[in-house]
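User: Show me a protein chain along with its predicted structure.
Assistant: Here is one chain, sequence first, then structure tokens.
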Amino acid sequence: MRSHRPGRLRRIVSVAAAVNDRDEEQAAAIRRRYLIRFEEDTLKSRPLWIRLIIEFLGTFVLVTVAAGSGVINHYVGGGPISRTAAVIAPGAVVMALIYAWGPLSGLHINPAVTFAFTSRRVFPPAWVVPYWVAQFAGAIGAALLLQAMFGHVSAGGNYPISTPGGEWRSFVMEIILTAILVSVILHTATGGRSIGHNAAIAVGSTVALLGLFASPISGSSMNPARTLGPDIVGANFTGWWVYVFGDFIGAAIAVVIIILVRGLPDKAEREAAEGGALPL
């Protein structure tokens, strides 16, 4: 009887291993099916109205966070929100929004970015005006919310540094900052399915890092909607041209740079600009 025990144990172990292998194969098959379905949902074409909703909501959230720090500091008094926190928060929220909503619209949430993708010929020209309307509507909506809750929304605006020559220095700074940011966006939108998580980290970090060193000069807006939303609601247009012309010139420079170093766009880049090629 004892001589048969090792054989029985081996058979039991063999059966257990076979069951375990079968369970692992089944789990792998389930994961593959889930990923395929997730990929199909992520990459499918979205109608324009869904894209516009996302652009409106994304810009609303961004401006609420970016302008909200200044407004809340003015309302509470004493400056409880530090400059470091005020510039890191927009970068963090951009990172989160790219993860969450990037596949739905491309998550431009910035008229200069839409302009850059269109100039790069990876974004339909017919969608430019609707995107801009949604972006400015989101920015104005956020400014109205801040004004209704805390008042003095101009405290959350971007204005050139109030020193002699401050406007032109802010103008040059906005050109440089926007060129850097849009370059990062355009380059992470190239290369098809490697852009999703990388784009979220790269773009969000760029927004925060540029703000850390440049915000005392121009506020490091890099986004006409983010600036003009509070300007319109607060009726304070000091230096408005800095954030319109500066940001669009910076975006144009970024387009020239990517054309020089990477050439014409491919299909993957066009899909990324339209929100259809972000990876899992």
